[in-house]
Amino acid sequence: xMFAVMAALLVTMLLALVRAFVGPGRYNRILAINTFGTKTxxxxxxxxxxxxxxxxxxxxxxxxxxxxxxVVAVLxxxxxxxxxxxxxxxxx
Length: 92
Known about the structure:
Elements: H1 2-22, H2 26-50, H3 56-78, H4 82-86
Helix pairs in contact: 1-2, 2-3
C-alpha cells in the first residue's frame, strides 16, 4: 500500500515538472515548482515511514523550509511593481 502511495507521489511530481517546463506563464511555473517541493517533502516523509527511518522527517522539514524561502525569494525577484508602472516611471 505504501509503495502505491510513493508511486502516486512520483506521478504527481512528474506532472508538476511537466507543468513547470510547459506552463503558460511565469507564476504558473513558480507554482508548479512549489508544488514539486511540497510533493518531495511528502515523498521523503512516506519513505521515512516505510523504511523505519524517522530522521527522514527532519530532512523533509528542512527541505520544506528551503522550498518556502526559495519560492518567496523568486517571487520577490520577479515581482512587477504596480505603482511604478501605473505612474509611468521606468525605474531610473
